[in-house]
Amino acid sequence: MLCQGLTVPQSISAKADLEGIGRRIRTLRGNLLQEDAANFLGISQGQLSKIERGKLGPTVEVLIRLVKRFGKSADWILMGQD
To answer: What is the model's pTM?
Structure first.
């Protein structure tokens, strides 16, 4: 079902800032090794590296694990907002 007459303001970008997301995830990881963080996230170290470098976005499952493990909101991880 399509929404008719719905306009999206030009100031709203629908594109995710993958580099920003990666920086925030790297900040959450702190001194924890990528390999150890990847293990509790259920992904490979290589996949976490790609996420942190902004080459790949986190899956919903990874996002949920980050929220539960570090106590930061999904809004903060995805958009830098609390």
So the answer is: 0.81
How many structural domains are present in the chain?
1
- The string of pLDDT tens digits covering residues 9-53 is 655 556 889 999 999 999 999 999 999 999 999 999 999 999 999
Which residue range(s) make up the domain with 75? 18-79
Evaluate whether 76 touches 23 at the Cβ level (below 8 Å): no
- Cα separation, 59 vs 63, in Å, equals 6
CATH code for position 35: 1.10.260.40
